[in-house]
Amino acid sequence: MSMRSLSNITAPLRRGRRREDSRLADHVDRLGEEHPPIPLESVDYTMKKPNLLAERFGSVLAYMTRVELEVERNVLELNILLPDPPEVDRRFYADVWMPQETRHGLILDKMQQLAGIVPHEANLTDVDFKLKLLGALGKVPGVQDISRMLYYLTGLATERSAVLAYNKLHTGLIELGERAIAATVVAPIKRQEPGHFAYYQMAAQELWGQLSGWQRWLTRSLRKRTFEVVGAYNKRQVTEFGDVMDALEVSRGGEADLRDYARQVGRAEYELMFAERHGLRVPDYVFKSLRRAAELAAERKGETWPAAEPAPL
Ligand SMILES: [Fe+2]
Ligand SMILES: [Fe+2]
Question: Where are the stretches annotated Disordered (predicted)?
């Protein structure tokens, strides 16, 4: 973590804007007290069969490690998107979220090295053009709220995906008999993700209640057009996420299974933004981008997704 990006987010303490009494501020305080970064000395990297582990879950570990490490870039993005964040947001990002996630990345990175997994290259510095554009648009009255809303929604889907992935990874490691890393790497990490999810959920609910009709309309349409599967910013990464879903057995059952997974990833934002609408219970834009990941991963292996049904007798 470069000290410059850190100081940008930690420097101004706008105490005047602190919402001491808010639910969100209490949540952030509690997370900070109850979940310090995982102590490095608590981790036991003992692996029984690192080769088997790498073969079975290498794609998952490499992917999650990259996403956790890229939090360093997310901080740069935050500085562009929210140059003047509410104090409670600043406290969450700087004092709780970033120190926890950076530690997740560090621990997973060491573990993947020990298992001989080829790491995915992390982008720590290069901020996407779309974000720079949103940052610039933030000077237009009312638009910064939309950027903030989109950031919370991305956080919501990202943290939910992380919770689901670590739960499945934990189960898979136990099945492989890798008890040490299941208990001292994945279990403590997965305990810290729901608190992040809850933060984004509360923040999104609070802000959604303050948005006007046109802001809500624009947020919904931008979200539909810009939804990305967690941590995938190009075709290669979307394909790699397809591999992750395959390894975690999220997509092997075909469309019905994947729709179920999409529902879990997208439920919170669906209920927030589309609650008044009836009918479809899955935001279709979530399902479509997950399906594309599953298809690309299958295609790279010379297969099709979903796997062809055996012909009926
Ligand atoms: Fe994490
Ligand atoms: Fe997280």
Answer: 1-35
Domain architecture of the chain: domains with CATH: 23-300 (1.10.620)
- The tokens describing 139, both together, are 């000077």
Q: How far is CA 98 from CA 40, 92, 130, in A?
A: 16, 8, 23
**For residue range 63-75, what is the model confidence (pLDDT) as tens digits?**
999 999 999 888 8
Distance 214 CA to ligand 2 centre (A): 31
Closest ligand to the CA of 97: 2
| Residue with the larger pLDDT of the pair 13 and 41 | 41
The predicted-structure confidence for 135-162, as pLDDT tens digits, reads as follows 887 778 788 899 889 999 999 999 999 9
Ligand located closest to 155 CA: 2
**112 neighbors 65 (Cβ within 8 angstroms):** yes
Please name the amino acid found at residue 305: W
Rounded CA-CA distance 205/202 in Å is 5
Q: pTM, whole model, 2 decimals?
A: 0.87
What residue has token string 């053009």? 129
Q: Rounded distance, CA 216 to CA 149, Å?
A: 9
How many angstroms separate the alpha carbon of residue 100 from the centre of ligand 2? 8
Whether the upstream peptide bond of residue 306 has omega within 30° of 0, thus cis, is yes
Give 186's contacts (C-beta < 8 A, 6+ positions apart). 166, 169, 170, 173
Q: What's the chain's Rg over C-alpha atoms?
A: 20
> How far is Cα 33 from Cα 173, in angstroms, rounded to an integer?
29
Interval 76-96: pLDDT, tens:
888 888 877 888 988 999 999
Instruction: Calculate mean pLDDT across residues 225-230.
Output: 90
Ligand nearest to the CA of 166: 1
Cα(181) to centroid(ligand 1), Å:
16
